[in-house]
Amino acid sequence: MEAAMGLMRRMPPKHTETALSALLSLLPDHSSDLLSQIDQPLQVLCDVDNAKEFILCEYNRDADSYRSPWSNKYHPPLEEGIYPSSELRKLEIEANEIFTVYRDQ
């Protein structure tokens, strides 16, 4: 495990996902330790309706699809996905607008 962590510290970030996958197949007994200790780069997807990127994470995932906070649609499309309530969706839109102003300043 110590050698695996040393290897990952020296790995370029663009190869993290591939190297982690290889280590998980070599050390299946240490998978929970590896996944909890190794930071993986964020993955993003472009919402084609708004031409904006969004982060892929467990909070916006349903099955193998991810919900865009910009259009409220799943990518790839999902027929029966979980959507926020109308009140929560309004807050999400407002928060996105506030973050956009903050980012642009």
Task: List key phrases describing it.
alpha+beta, 4 helices, 105 residues, 3-stranded antiparallel β-sheet, single chain, two-stranded antiparallel sheet
User: What class do helices, strands and sheet pairing give?
Assistant: alpha+beta
Q: Unreliable segments (pLDDT under 50, ≥5 consecutive)?
A: none
Work out the helicity level: 40-55%
Distance between the termini: 44 Å
Radius of gyration, taken over Cα atoms and rounded to an integer in Å: 18 Å
Number of helices: 4
Q: Widest sheet: strand order?
A: 3-4-5
Return the average pLDDT rounded to an integer.
93
What sort of overall outline do the alpha carbons produce when their principal axes are compared?
elongated
Number of strands: 5
Classify the beta-strand content into a percent band: 15-25%
Major sheet attributes = 3 strands, antiparallel
* Secondary-structure element series: HHHEEEEEH
